[in-house]
Amino acid sequence: MTSVKVYLDNEQDTVELGKRLAAIITPPLILNLSGELGAGKTTLSRGLIQAFGHQGAVKSPTYALVEPYELAGVDLFHFDLYRLSDPEELEFMGIRDYFTENSICIVEWPDRGHGLMPEADISCHIKYLDAGREVEIVSGSEKGQLLLSKFK
Question: How far apart are CA 91 and CA 102, in angstroms?
Fold first, then answer.
């Protein structure tokens, strides 16, 4: 397991971290984002999704649970499981259909889908630290380990 820690001073640093991650990831990939409310999970997602070519706003899919993006030959799915009341709800929405050979799945609040979500290749744990944030990026698979070895 490979681990990297990054300190973020502000929102722009968080967006830039998303762009840096986008530069190293390829499908199929699962990226888990965890941290307290307001820690920057959606901001990091925005940087990553826009780095893949999305031109519009990136909103948190809190109520829809998933927001799909078709970008440059990649199916990117942004999940926010915060409002999930029962992991079984994921079965009803056909959760397994999202994890394909051509997909990148960003999952906020992955612990809410416990038992039904595949293991992440990379996990980012965001926590408040002084006036900024500290992000611990951890590999969860062989592919994640290889990708993190390219992280700059």
Answer: 21
The structure's pTM equals 0.94
CA–CA distance from 123 to each of 4, 27, 140, 142 (Å)?
A: 11, 15, 7, 13
Sheet holding 103-108, edge to edge: 3-8, 132-139, 122-129, 29-35, 103-108, 74-80, 66-71
Closest of 129, 114, 133 to residue 14, by C-alpha: 133
Segment 34-47 shows an average pLDDT of 95
How much helix, strand and coil, in percent to the nearest 5, is found in the chain? Answer: 30, 30, 40
Q: In this structure, are strands 103-108 and 29-35 parallel, antiparallel, or unpaired?
A: parallel
